[in-house]
């Protein structure tokens, strides 16, 4: 799934509820999901990790929607490799 499509699906599915909840609460939910991902990385199964990665990406999409950020544009700076040195793999010291 492409990021723009994900953002549209998240908006269509949760947009009204997420905007009512507000940005501070969305950030709190995202932080909670990152914590769950950290636990899954340390002690979880592959399926649990996959689930938590999905949750984190979905909450990032929700937050981006609320903030008017296009995720495709946001990550475009990584399209050619390291945004700092321009190399892949990164050649930064």
From TrEMBL:
Record-given protein name: Pyrophosphohydrolase
Domain NTP pyrophosphohydrolase MazG-like as annotated: residue spans: 25-78
